[in-house]
Design goal:
The protein has 173 residues and is α/β, with parallel strands linked by helices. Helix content is 52%, strand content 14%.
């Protein structure tokens, strides 16, 4: 594996995991938030340039995205050594606490209530693991890493651990 994309929802532990993985493997770490200009996210040419300028060996804490999986599919068809690791924080209390700490520390916003966070983040959580994971598994090899327990888990185990998200997601809708 020489081109590793770490993906997961906000607060899943992508960056922490990617930094640790980088130090263990010697792959260059690319911090997505530092290099990506979010205001240009819809610009397909901008995102394509990102893919074209990746080094030969790297780990990045996101999958650059522009409205569809098209550019990612092009990239993985071009290279055989692409790998994806989904990070998951299966403990809902820990996950929500991570989000609240991050928002307070880095975004300088008043911590939201758990109810507010639940409404705004659970749809994203459910989409990532019930929808996006299925899309990616058809494209490329992947693993799932639970940052709550610091272990790789199977897809079956993932759905057992996040059953709470499916139920909450139904309630939020």
């Amino acid at each position: 594996m020489s081109k590793v994309f770490i993906t997961g929802v906000f607060g899943s532990g992508k960056t922490t995991f990617a930094k640790k993985y980088s130090s263990e493997t010697g792959l260059s770490f690319i911090n997505f938030d530092e290099m990506f200009k979010y205001e240009q996210a819809k610009d397909k040419t901008y995102v394509k340039d990102i893919y074209n300028n990746f080094p030969e060996h790297f780990i990045i804490d996101a999958i650059p995205f522009s409205q569809s999986w098209e550019l990612f599919i092009e990239y993985i068809q071009k290279y055989e050594d692409v790998y994806v690791i989904f990070t998951i924080c299966s403990n809902p209390i820990e996950w929500l606490n991570r989000i609240m700490r991050f928002k307070q520390a880095y975004m300088k916003v008043k911590p939201e209530t758990v109810a507010d966070l639940t409404k705004s983040y659970f749809e994203q959580y459910a989409n990532m693991y019930y929808k996006n994971l299925k899309s990616i598994e058809e494209m490329v090899d992947f693993k799932i890493f639970d940052t709550s327990t610091n272990e790789y888990i199977s897809r079956t185990e993932l759905y057992i651990r996040i059953d709470w998200a499916k139920e909450v997601y139904k309630e939020v809708k």
